[in-house]
Amino acid sequence: MEGGGSERQMVNLIRGLDRSIVSPELFLLDRKGALLDDVPTDVPIKAYWQEHKQSRFYFPGRVFASQTKMLSNVIQRERHKVVYERLFHMALIAGTAARRAGVPHVATIVSPPDQDLLRTENRFVWLKRWILASSYRSAARLLAVSQGTADNASKFYRIPRDRFEVMPSPIDLERVERLRHEAGYETLMRPDRKQLISIGRLSEEKGHSCLVKAIGLVTRKTSLNVELHLVGDGHLLDGLKKQAFDEGVADRVIFHGQIANPFPLLCRADLFCLPSLYEGLPNALLEAMAVGVPAMASDCEGGIREVSLNGALCTLVSRDDPIEWFKAIQSRFDSPLLALERAASAQNHVEQHHALPKWVKQMEQIFVDIASNS
After folding, report:
1. CA distance 326 to 305
2. Which of 161, 276, 147 is nearest to 211 (CA)?
3. Distances (CA, A) of 111 to 37, 108, 118, 156, 304
4. What is the Cα Rg of the chain in Å?
5. Cβ–Cβ under 8 Å, residues 319 and 299
6. Dihedral of CA 236/237/242/244: which sign?
7. Structural contact between residues 194 and 272, judged by C-beta atoms closer than 8 angstroms
8. Measured distance CA(94)–CA(90) in Å, rounded
9. Which residues have a Cβ under 8 Å from the Cβ of 150 and sit 6 or more positions away?
10. Phi and psi for 291 in degrees, rounded to 5?
11. Which among 346, 108, 10 has a CA at the least distance from the CA of 2?
12. 57 CB-contact burial (10 Å; exposed 0-12 / middle 13-18 / buried 19+)
């Protein structure tokens, strides 16, 4: 339960489900992560690595088979009616386990698989693609967080497009409103500088290297006094720190690591940046919009164009192009009124179309319908 968007959405769903209708149980690979404490205490948790130990000997498929068996046994023993998952790592296990247990499952695809799967997996990719295609084809309901993600997954897995239902991710606006007023790390923001922020794990697909290069260009080519706050952890941390030093902006790029509540920082930012190489439906962008911060994001495949209404609600910038990001950052501060007007429209859009209670009720009804017909 690390602090990713899908993990947060899973917590939102579990917390919001009506216990008189649905009794959830959570199956994890590892019982750890920043969001684990947010799981309600009435929800039982089963974790694979809590009951198993790593073997000294590696046999291809052995752990996968063991994980699938454990989940299937949990489903049968607890007499669960529906299995739900929303990450392809869990779809590999959940689809197979649900079929073995004879129980329907619901799947949500959160990122374009031709990017997400192919960029993050190195071994047996063809086999994982085949297993995932089988898992998604057998799903009782197949959901995607955006039209672009559904289109991409349909082609990648060769599943008819009409099998997919688009259900955009929600934002817990009450939680955001509560957290934004808590004391936080905002004292680390220098009042004499324009404040930029990016929230997300420090991995290749999030595109932070491009953003750091753009900050270097801003510093060298303009008189703008800016600093960039990077919130999140990941294996690129040391490399990005070195890059900031090489670009001459080590004192202008602040690495905060994972923060339980980034909203005090976010709310005081002048600009939110999402330089991702691909996205399904970016929760961090929705949260920035929800608090009224001007935003810019990569014009990449997935749901960013849909969330931004093709650039009406935030600035779209060419993907992985530091010069274009430099120009966009400069433009934000050259035309401040336009940026603030766009941010106000974005905030209203999120409130109208991405409220959490409506999404939870929709998911709840899907579970009830499937359980009633199984």
Report:
1. 20
2. 276
3. 26, 9, 11, 12, 11
4. 21
5. yes
6. positive
7. no
8. 6
9. 109, 144, 161, 164, 166
10. -100, 5
11. 10
12. exposed
Cα 313 to Cα 347: distance, rounded to the nearest angstrom: 9
Nearest to 325, CA basis, from 210, 241, 248, 231: 210
Q: Domain 174-353 falls in which CATH fold?
A: Rossmann fold (3.40.50)
Q: State pTM to two decimals.
A: 0.86
Alpha carbon distance 272, 343 (integer Å): 11
The residue behind tokens 């752990």 is 63
Domain 5-170+356-373 has CATH 3.30.1330.40: no
Q: How far apart are CA 88 and CA 117, in angstroms?
A: 8
Matching fold, domains 5-170+356-373 and 174-353: yes
The secondary structure of the chain in percent helix, strand, coil, rounded to multiples of 5, reads 50, 15, 35
- Domain spans, the chain: 5-170+356-373, 174-353
pLDDT tens, per residue, the chain with 374 residues: 876 788 989 999 999 999 999 999 999 999 998 889 999 999 999 999 999 888 777 777 889 999 999 999 999 999 999 999 998 889 999 999 999 999 999 999 998 898 878 777 778 889 999 999 999 999 999 999 999 999 999 999 999 999 999 999 899 999 999 999 887 766 778 999 999 999 999 999 999 999 999 999 999 999 999 999 999 999 999 999 999 999 999 999 999 998 888 999 999 999 999 999 988 888 899 999 999 999 999 998 768 999 999 999 999 999 999 999 999 999 999 999 999 999 999 999 999 999 899 999 999 999 999 999 87
Q: How many angstroms separate the CA atoms of 60 and 94, rounded?
A: 19
State which H helix or E strand residue 174 sits in.
helix 173-179
Q: How many CB atoms are located within 10 Å of the residue 354 CB?
A: 22
Contact present, 364 and 21 (Cβ < 8 Å): yes
